[in-house]
Fold this protein.
Amino acid sequence: MSNEQTTEWLSPMQMADRCGVPAETLRYYEREGLLDQVHRNDGNQRRYSADDVAWVGVLRCLRVTAMPIREMKRFAELVRVGEAGVPERLELLRSHRQQVLEQRAALDDALAMIDHKIDIYSTAVAPVTDADTDGVTTTPTLGGRGIRTSSA
């Protein structure tokens, strides 16, 4: 029995569901040369293998880490050449890793600022309860800038 007959093939919709991407993304990856030649059935419909699923997982990882399409294409080319492309693949991934670490540091700084602002604004809008002081109800204004009084 040939590999063709034993391979579990996925339709474009099944592939999209399995990979968590729209079918249009799969077609885009194919047009851009990021996916190898996609197999087709006798009716010329695309069909995908488990290897295709794994490869799209790699592509998604690279995209979510903001690797430019041009570099993704280069990476795909290096994968296609096999063992000869390993040293350059390694260098490309090391360089990309450094960029991801820098992005993560910038995001951590931005998140710290957002958390700081949330703390400030949460304090500013926190409900203030009235206090009864010798029969006079006082309600502090926002940020404690003055006191409103009302007579009983």
Observations:
- The first helix runs from residue 3 to 6.
- The helical segments are 3-6, 12-19, 23-31, 50-64, 69-80, 86-124.
- The two ends are 94 Å apart (CA to CA).
- The first strand starts at residue 39 and ends at 40.
